[in-house]
From TrEMBL:
It catalyses: N-acetyl-D-glucosamine + ATP = N-acetyl-D-glucosamine 6-phosphate + ADP + H(+). Pfam families: ROK (PF00480). This is N-acetyl-D-glucosamine kinase. It comes from the Bacteria. It comes from Chimaeribacter californicus. InterPro entries: ATPase_NBD, ROK, ROK_cs. Belongs to the ROK (NagC/XylR) family. NagK subfamily. It is an enzyme of class 2 (transferase). The keyword Nucleotide-binding applies.
Amino acid sequence: MYYGIDMGGSKIELAVFDAQLTRLWQKRVPTPRDDYTTLLAALVALVQEADAVVGGGRVGIGVPGLIKADGTLFSANVPAASGRRVQDDLARLLERGVRIDNDANCFALSEAWDDEFRAYPSVLGLILGTGVGGGLVFNGKVFSGRNGVAGEVGHVRLPVDARAILGDVPPVACGCGQIDCIEGYLSGRGFERLYALAGGQTLTAPAIMARYRAGEAAAVAHFTRYADLLAACLGNLLTLLDPHLVVIGGGLSNVDELYPALAARLPAHLLPGCVPPRIEKARYGDAGGARGAACLNLLD
Ligand SMILES: [Zn+2]
């Protein structure tokens, strides 16, 4: 059996899968946010409960944050675990190997192991949500890089095309310390900010898209600008990575108009003769975190 744990800022989910990735059992508990010993105890209790139900399994855990090269976790969402060696501590307490990765990589891995998508040797998972994140999966395994930040596409900076597309909008200071990371423009918040800056009101992304569908001129111009910028940014990533499949998750992945808009725009951003990859909406949504964590143990 394969246990996937999705540790979020408010809840921890453990799901048990068989080798065909059929989910057999699942449980959610609140995340102890402030005390590390309590957090570890909650994780151990979940695994022991799963053991009692299914008789044991290999453990993978997805965490919000960065697993640093020295094995410690940096996580703003789960302060109790930040600076801790979660993987080592869990492995010791559970007396079994534990694999760990960040939640964006687990998202990408879950999609890459979809029954249909697993035929693709390389998959870029792109999250257009509260922030912009991503993960790279090559031949069924996450590629995390030397510092664990491979696939953190939200902190790639705006491409040179951006100023012509965006016009005179003020720069965005990113939480990472840089200016004008693409997250500031392509995230759900960025989408809403660009609409407001262009003279629209402060609205949620779904409300803006409702106006787009009703033919509001400001919303139509806004969506065109956003799609142009997303295509320019994604075009750079495609030239770097040339993935066979791109899977888009996060709230903006539900904007169905994005997919034909990208297909129309991407060829102009690729090298001559290159064909854009298949681009699909994520299939696992909120269930992808635990599923992806379970997939960490599928290959040795
Ligand atoms: Zn940044």
